Amino acid sequence: MPSQLLDATTRADVVTIPARKVLAIEGAGAPEGESFQRAVGALYGVAYTLKFARKKAGGSEFKIGPLEGRWWATLEGSVFVKAPRDSWRWRLRLAMPEDVGEAEIAAAIAAATHKKGGKLEGSTEAKTVSLERVPAERVGRALHVGPYAEEGRTFDVIDQALADAGVKPAFSHLEIYLGDPRRTPPARLRTVLMRETR
């Protein structure tokens, strides 16, 4: 995962994220919804299946990094955090090594969905996981510390940084989850927030 996705501080800035290769899955709805949770499980399941297959084959190993989410609302032009939650769209990503190919991903998906008694046996979500190359992009970013529900205050700071740089924000944004909401108190959650630009 490029350092630009991780090394943000609470002071907003504008940076360019280099092109990168990721494993991705797309869906709709609020993050507490069942669809989102199944997608997260499918994405991580395929990633770890690939990781262990490489290790078993003696290939180059890699670390599974933090989850990245790209968010936007179907109501283009609306302020995302104020848009109805059922209108939210998301594309979840996990960073992949540059040498990972389509055939390797297809094999990992097949192994994960056909493993008897495995968590992803017969999973329709896992079959939609894909490998993609994300192009380089310029973003406004800042580290948000606190509950997800309070991200609006950090986006205000990011939007001001973009305005100061003469850059127009897009209606979509990225989030990198540095903490596990199941184990971390909401006040201590750390999330890198990035506003995409036009």
Chain-wise SSE layout:
Elements (H helix, E strand, L loop, with lengths): L12 E5 L2 E9 L5 H24 L10 E6 L14 E8 L6 H13 L15 E5 L2 E9 L5 H14 L4 E9 L12 E8 L1
Antiparallel strand pairs: 1-6, 2-4, 2-5, 3-4, 3-7, 6-8, 7-8
How does this structure look, described?
The chain is an alpha+beta fold and 198 residues long. The chain has 2 domains: 1-17 and 135-167 and 175-198, Regulatory factor, effector binding domain (Multidrug-efflux Transporter 1 Regulator Bmrr, Chain A); 20-134, Regulatory factor, effector binding domain (Multidrug-efflux Transporter 1 Regulator Bmrr, Chain A), CATH 3.20.80. 26% of the residues lie in helices and 30% in strands. The chain contains 3 helices and 8 strands, in the order ββαββαββαββ. It has helices at residues 34-57, 102-114, 151-164; strands at 13-17, 20-28, 68-73, 88-95, 130-134, 137-145, 169-177, 190-197. Strands 1-6-8-7-3-4-2-5 form an 8-stranded antiparallel β-sheet. The chain starts with 12 loop residues before the first strand and ends with a strand. The relative contact order is 0.23. The model has no long low-confidence stretch (mean pLDDT 92).
